[in-house]
Amino acid sequence: MRRSLGVKDGLAIAASSTAATTSIGIGMGTLAAYAGRQTPALLLLAFLPILGIALSYARLNRTEPNCGSGYTWVGRSIGPWSGFLTGWVVLVGNVIFMAYTGAVTGSVVLQFLNKLGVHRVLGLRLDPAATGISTAVGLVALVVVTVTAVTGVRSATRMQLGLLIFEYVVLLGFCGCALVVGDQPFSLSWLDPFEIGSPQALAQGMVIAVFIYWGWDAAFSVNEETRSASDAARGGLIALIAMLGLFLVGAFAFQRVMNTGELIRNGPQALTFLGGRLAPEPWASLPLAALMCSAFASLQSSVIPTARGALAMARDRTLGPVWQRLHPRYGSPAVGTLLVMALAALLAVLAVGIPKLNDMILTAVNSIGLTVALYYGLTALACAVRFRDGWRQGPVRALRDVVVPAASALALFGLGGYLVWQYATMSDHFEATPDNGWFMLLLPALFVLTGLAVAAWAKWVRRAPYFRTGRGTDADAIPLPMDGESGRLARPSEG
Q1: Among the residues of 64-118, which ranges form H helices?
Q2: Of the candidates 32, 268, 275, which has an alpha carbon nearest to the alpha carbon of residue 127?
Q3: Are 411 and 429 within 8 A, CB to CB?
Q4: Which region, left, alpha or beta, applies to residue 214 given φ > 0 means left and ψ of -120 to 50 means alpha?
Q5: CA pair distance 216, 214, nearest whole angstrom
Q6: Which helix (H) or strand (E) holds 199?
Q7: Whose CA is closest to 107, among 21, 26, 169?
Q8: CA-CA distances (angstroms) from residue 472 to 80, 117, 354, 475, 478?
Q9: Helix axis angle, 199-213 relative to 229-257, nearest 10°?
Q10: Cα–chain-centroid distance for residue 439?
Q11: Do residues 106 and 296 make contact, with C-beta atoms less than 8 angstroms apart?
Q12: Do 250 and 177 form a contact (C-beta atoms < 8 A)?
């Protein structure tokens, strides 16, 4: 692939994938359902392990830039089965994310049409809260972003940067106004996580908060297309810190204008509600326009890392060769990008069976949140294992290379394990609703089980060298274990 990207491009991809405006617009009401007025405290608490994960990514990327990121690093540091599972849950999680984000994009478009007075077309009610019509409109958006992703990541990041500038100007303008004119009194208890009602509510809110931060690691998926490997790391870390600031500003602003009941009740339309509270039309529609830009950019930036992760797996023959075909003109994994779009579209159509968009979003967020905690934790653990010699090289190296990554991994594993236990014991029957524990466990369990099945096929049918050596077919290009701080990797013996 062509090395044409810099820090700015990595930042645009990471920020677009995290989708601050979308996360604030549809996520604050969901967090409030679990954390109440302590949403800002929850966002700060969740940031701590995520920062440790991001530093682990940067450390691994410095010595082994690979568009497979966690898939490659975990496979070569812990083992190929864990590595494949990391790559698989990222691939499947992104496809599910694109499926529901497409529906969110469609819902925002329908809200625009409703504001223009268009409520029916050919007898069909244009209800933004309905999954079916929102998904149909979202499929059109999915096709558009796929075309732009195929024509080259450079042009895609330019578009994303323009969308980001617009949405952040609008978001900060309205949130700044809300902080000043809001009539809900500020309280220091908003920053106290011990005020959250129960351990279960804290754990559930933490998983959703981790999901809200998810996406900054998309910058590492283009580390083979950046002019310098460190550019991807800088872009991802800058985006993550910026997201913390934006999320806190958004949380404080929403709580200054809305009480907890209003936040929960408005759900995905909370940002639109905020705009209507603060300004008359047509200015009140600006947050809705920003939300549409954010959802569109997030869709596009999700296609990019998903196709590149599949490309890395195909190079190791753990996935089929179709995933590694590059476009002769644009240098992008075009066939893989189209396949990702097709899978997301198929899943979006199947999800129409969940009639309410709110329920669809909550189901997807809970499922992806658990798998994100799994693969983030595995990648941080890979950092601690690979750089374990840091124990003997001083306290700073030990803290940076071992302690922080291991503590971050254990925090996410503990959070995920506690929620799995809660889900398994909270229901006595199965029902396809987001408040049924068995249903909440079903999708993450399917992610893992299908991943293990595909890994078994790759090992014993495809006979992928990745499962024999942990190195893959590109081992001559990308060496393996570390040799001290120099960043050079010592080549292992073939025996």
Answers
A1: 70-77, 80-115
A2: 268
A3: no
A4: beta
A5: 6
A6: helix 199-213
A7: 26
A8: 10, 57, 40, 6, 9
A9: 130
A10: 21
A11: no
A12: no
Distance (Å, rounded) from C-alpha 231 to C-alpha 9? 9
Whether CATH 3.90.1580.10 fits 7-462? no
Q: Does residue 124 sit in helix, strand or coil?
A: strand
Which residue, chain included where needed, has tokens 């922080």?
404
Per-residue pLDDT of the chain (495 residues; tens, 9 = 90+): 667 678 888 888 889 888 888 888 878 888 998 999 999 999 999 999 999 999 999 999 988 998 889 999 999 999 999 999 999 999 988 888 888 788 888 888 888 888 878 888 888 888 887 778 888 888 988 888 888 777 766 667 777 888 889 999 999 999 999 999 999 999 999 999 999 988 889 998 998 899 899 989 988 988 888 888 788 889 999 999 999 999 999 999 999 999 999 988 887 678 888 888 999 888 888 988 898 888 888 887 788 788 888 989 999 999 999 898 877 777 778 888 889 889 888 888 877 666 666 666 677 777 788 889 999 999 999 999 999 988 888 899 999 999 999 999 999 999 999 989 988 998 888 887 777 889 889 888 998 999 999 999 999 999 898 887 655 544 333 343 343 444 444 433 332
Site of tokens 């700073």 = 396
- With 0-12 / 13-18 / 19 or more C-beta atoms within 10 angstroms meaning exposed / middle / buried, residue 376 is buried
Q: Which residues contact 406 (CB under 8 A, 6 or more apart)?
A: 380, 381, 384
CA–chain centroid gap for 73, Å, is 19
Residue with tokens 């509510």: 201
Between CA 316 and CA 78 the distance in angstroms is 17
Token pair of 253, please? 């602003």
CA dihedral 438, 46, 57, 13 (to 10 degrees): 90
Cα–Cα distance measured from residue 177 to residue 163, given in angstroms and rounded to the nearest whole number: 21
* Model confidence, pTM: 0.86
CA–CA gap between residue 278 and residue 129 (Å, rounded): 23
- Which amino acid is present at 339? L
Residue 121, phi then psi, degrees to nearest 5: -135, 120
- Say if residues 470 and 76 touch (Cβ distance below 8 Å): yes
| 495 Cβ neighbours under 8 A, 6+ residues apart | none
